[in-house]
Amino acid sequence: MSPKSWLRGFHTAPEPASRPVQLVCFPHAGGSAGYFVPLSAQLSGVSQVLAVQYPGRQDRWREPAVDNLDELAEQIVAALRPARNGGPLALFGHSMGALVAYEVARRLAPARLYVSGCPAPSRGVEATKGIKDDAGLLADLRRLNGTDAGLLADPEMLELILPALRADYHAVRTYQWQPGSEPRCPVRVLTGSHDTRTPPHVVADWRRHTTGECHFHEYEGGHFYLTEQTGRVADLLAADLAQGVH
Known about the structure:
By secondary structure, the protein is of the alpha/beta class.
């Protein structure tokens, strides 16, 4: 699979851009690369921002979605290796994307890892364990309040998006962390203040998943706090990325 199938860029890299920092963003379950357009716009002056487009959605809707998180990470690593520009690489993942970014980091050794809205890998996402059918899946999406309610009420749209959603939720529900090498880079853990998925006791264990520094940042909002707090999150990332994340 060509790297172009997996990676989307929305804004021109900063100038001079001989070896810009690459920030690769990983979307949530049911999400797409386009979720990160606002963040890309905010960071266009300091980084080349790329977003991962998982198969089974939008322009890749004809491709089968991947319902195994480790397999998804392996495929993304294969796409990222030839796409790297030789400069430093940073990874940012939200919700399911945080787990994918973490597993990619175990394989690619980035300079920085940002994980958002997600319990530590060794904890698992307990909230998804009991979701066994479409009704439970859709109820969970409504609780998280990150998907257009009109979209969830449209039978024709649901027919298009449900296959990818089923695969993503299955990937999260069945993910089992395996002991092994951990990322050596600094990790920043970002959460929403009202996100029931990420209370302190389930995110604190992210410290176990890096041999580098681990810092925690809380923002006002729920599971999809990033939608309202893009500017503040971009400021945090920009301060790191402007240093070249060596």
